[in-house]
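Page 47, continued from p. 46.
Same chain as before, 97 aa.
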Amino acid sequence: MLSTILLWAKLFSIEQIRYENEFPISFSAALSYISSHPDANIRLKHKGIDSCLSWSIVFSELIRYDTIQDYFEVSALKTLYIQYGKDYADFSIGNFK
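Result:
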């Protein structure tokens, strides 16, 4: 019985994701965004919104957005390069736009 419980616990356990290791650039960008908006905490509190809860939602979305944005920028650049050549697709993406 105990071995069955331990097996089920192992199968359905959730490993903690270390976002700073999985998405180091996006993680840093999200931290930078949050620290550049200190007045948001005051506005959230004024509206009766828990700033910790709000930032936890915003933070995860910022990480995903940065990753998705990078994917689409790289994909667009590759497509333009393949279809029209290096003269047409000679532009920077990411932080060097």
